[in-house]
Amino acid sequence: MERDWKELLDSRLDTFWGYGNLDGKHWFVGMEEGHDLDMESLKGRLKDTQGKSIVDIVEGNPSFVKKLRWFVPPAPPIQRTYKGYIAIQLFLELGRMPTTIEIREYQLTRLGRTYVDGLPNDHAILELMPLPAPSLAERHWPYGNLGIAGLENRKKYLATYKPVQCEKLKAMIEDYKPALVVFYSLTYLGDWQRIVPGKLEEVADRQFVYEDAGTIYCVLPHPVSRNIRNADWETWGKELLRRL
After folding, report:
1. ∠ CA(155), CA(156), CA(162), 5° rounding?
2. How far is CA 159 from CA 96, 133, 156, in A?
3. Which of 29-43, 83-97, 167-181 is least confident?
4. What is the 3-state secondary structure (H, E, C) of the chain?
5. Is 166 exposed, middle or buried (0-12, 13-18, 19+ CB in 10 A)?
6. In DSSP terms, which residues pair with 29 in a beta bridge?
7. What are phi and psi of 215, to 5 degrees?
8. What is the overall mean pLDDT for the chain?
9. C-alpha to C-alpha distance for 107 and 111, rounded to whole angstroms
10. Residue 37 pLDDT exceeds 80
11. Among 8, 63, 109, 137, which is most buried by a count of CB atoms within 10 Å?
12. 214 contacts: CB under 8 Å, gap ≥ 6
């Protein structure tokens, strides 16, 4: 095992959460980032974020962004997962469903940035589990041959680090007190419930909410889940807008 791999992974596990601004009033939380099987580009991503808790998704993460189309002007394709995050964010700003043009522009210029037009950004995009992976399949787990305890396979990784990450994220929310935390994926509803300080209640179809001490906690389906329509995003956005 290369020593620098262990240092990079230890740093990522200890400190890294995602992109944007932790002082932003809205946090969007997923389970983990995707990645391809190119270990050199993966190492580059880890180096970009070494020792940092949150970075600008473009400027602070060049090894990741340079391989993607999502942030290349003038008219990048809309990334499916990001689309769900942006739909909620813009609904709260506009009071209506955003257009495709508005979603694309937001992705290109505002999503996951630390600053926008010289001012601190209003949101953060976080992942509960800090290590990127190509998929949830065990055969795609890229860290098993590095000789690092706790990373031998995905099952061991989740058993070792997920309880710790849940407690760390819970403490971060209590510390920063964002107005809204949106968790994505009903598959991990049990994990999100461990972070939320009270019982989540289903207030609309596939939308679970709990309010406490100035923070609204919300769980929604993952944006790439089947059978999600624009009408669903509108329903969920209206519910959050009513509560904020």
Report:
1. 85
2. 41, 16, 5
3. 29-43
4. CCHHHHHHHHHHHHHCCEEECCCCCEEEEECCCECCCCHHHHHHHHHHCCCCCEECCCCCCHHHHCCCCCCCCCCCCCCHHHHHHHHHHHHHHHCCCCCHHHHHHHHHHCCCCCEECCEECCEEEEECCCCCECCCCHHHCCCCCCCCCCCCCHHHHHHHHHHHHHHHHHHHHHHHCCCEEEEECHHHHHHHHHHCCCCCEEEECCEEEEEECCEEEEEECCCCCCCCCHHHHHHHHHHHHHHC
5. middle
6. 126, 183
7. -120, 130
8. 94
9. 5
10. no
11. 8
12. 177, 179
Contacts of 138 (CB under 8 A, 6+ apart): 153, 154, 155
What are the structure tokens assigned to 184, written together?
């994505």
Axis crossing angle, helix 80-94 with helix 230-243, rounded to the nearest 10: 40
pLDDT digits (tens, 9 = 90+) for 118-140: 999 999 999 999 999 988 888 88
Instruction: Report the predicted TM-score, pTM, of the whole model to 2 decimal places.
Output: 0.95
Whole-number Å distance between alpha carbons of 215 and 198:
12
Tokens 């509803």 map to which residue?
A: 189
| 122-158 burial: b if 16+ Cβ within 10 Å, else e | bbbbbbbbbbbbeeeeeeebbbeeeebeebbebeebb
Nearest in space to 191 (alpha carbons), one of 213, 215, 159: 159
